[in-house]
Amino acid sequence: MAEPGVRKRKNARGAKSQSAKNGRPTGHQTGTKRDHGMLKVVAGAVLVSLVFFVYQNYDYVYALIRAWRERPIYNFDAASKRELDFSADIPKRDAVVAAFKHAWLAYERDAMGDDEYHPIGHSGTNLTSAGGIGYTVVDSIDTMLLMGLDKEYERARKWVAEDLSFERDGDFNTFETTIRVLGGLLSAFHLTKDMIYIERAKDLADRMMPAFDTPTGLPLSMVNLAKRIGVADKDNRGLVSTAEVSTLQLELKYLTMLTDEETYWEKAETVMKVIKNAKIASGLSSIFLNANDGKYSISPIRLGSRGDSYYEYLLKQYIQTNHTEPIYRTMYEDAMAAVTTHLIRRSENEELIYTQEIIPERNRNGQITWRMIPKQDHLVCFFGGSLMLGAVTTGATGPSVSIPPRASELTAAGRRDWANGVGLVQTCMETYKTATGLSPEIVHFRMPNDNVQTQSKHDWYIKGAEPGKTPYDARYILRPETVESLFIAWRLTGDPQYREWGWGIFEAIEKHCRIESGGYASVLNVDVLPVELEDKMETFLMSETLKYLYLLFSDDTVLPLSKYVFNTEAHPFPIFTPTLQTGFS
Ligand SMILES: *[C@@H]1O[C@H](CO)[C@@H](O)[C@H](O)[C@H]1NC(C)=O
Ligand SMILES: *[C@@H]1O[C@H](CO)[C@@H](O)[C@H](O)[C@H]1NC(C)=O
Fold it and tell me: Where exactly are the transmembrane stretches of this chain (predicted)?
């Protein structure tokens, strides 16, 4: 077969040279030379401008070439051929329930009613010296209900009825109290219809409302529950964090739905209006806002701490009110376009999707410049599942989308977000490839020519990790974000890979975090064996990590995503069609 091809090429070349020779008499020789000269000048000019263009637009051209060379993240056609089986994996689901009991019973034995638990010292502590506010108990209730742990639930309910009090003269974080305690009370009400939870929820919310009494309506970071006054965070010069003020809306709006009192809804919505008006040219949001003028302060831009759940709740507010508030759709779509352009990146060798941070720096002339840092918090791992959920919601071309979605059912933005979501979940799983099988709190990604010395074989590494050192970044504190994304990805695709990954994480937690006498502790360095533990069991182990694992192995009639939206602490709220309409656009 090679022969004719070769000959053809030879012939073609031969024919061309022949015609040039025969067809052009001597008189034209100089003309041809001049033409050639012109051609060279033009070609040279084109080349110079091309080089100049590439030089001027290096990042853009580089990204284009990369995009063309890279393997695609997701193949819609191949994924659609899979047979779906959403039935429960009962042995694995029961193992997760056993883990929950191992955690809860130890807490109940050693520290019932205290806000936080220390399983190694068998003790509890409260957030303030004014006494506890049910941080752990309330956060755990809906998980017990889902798991069918009736006896444990009855004891927890009794504690809420008899011992829980918010008459505490101390400063509590507005956001944390809302997502854990208010959120926990509301989902407990939804699952039981027991009015005690509404009473408690309303009491707590009313004590917190004064935090919103600022010139703009952006709530202060802290609130004194007994004195009913907002308290500014002195560490941050009175600024408020973007994610904290924009992650109260699902809770307050649902409370309005349950009580018919509009004030909670209005306060929640005012915050969103201020944020919408604060919009900056790039479409990005930085992590601090000024509660006095409602403007962004010059501060880092990231999907990690203080940024994360702002994006999560833009989408979830649109979902919560059954797609009746298009303003959140618009805000979410704008945010995702900006995030895609400025924050989502792909690593050099392994082509891992990750998100970078952008931090402001002041140069010698006092001007602000922005620096990119390839740093990703474990917190960002919620974003893989969130992008996938957004793709089948705001990125859908019609009213329903298949499991998994077909390419034709998604808009271009939907396909983009879906692929990036799938890719980010994969990346998060890559960061679990450590000595313990647990992921560190923070990873950095290699950049071309960054001269970073690391022992990592991967495109990511733990900053400051060397033998004998335990940097802060190396810890695993029982965080839920990756299993949260695995649960959403599983429900939206039916791909058993997500269950396998979740099981791997569960086994690593059992192996390294479990305390024999009861409870689970945090690991100080995910790359060091045997592990060194820190004596703390975060409340989100029982409210989020174990709940999402339980849901991952349950059948898909348990809390279907078409009927529920999860707050950022994994408390499920029902989707509803509101009687109120959003007051701004
Ligand atoms: C936490 O607060 C509760 C309620 O005031 C109190 O009963 C308990 O003793 C406190 N726990 C600790 C460890 O101080
Ligand atoms: C959401 O809206 C759809 C279409 O309007 C409607 O059929 C459905 O009942 C609504 N769901 C809820 C929970 O209100």
Answer: 37-55
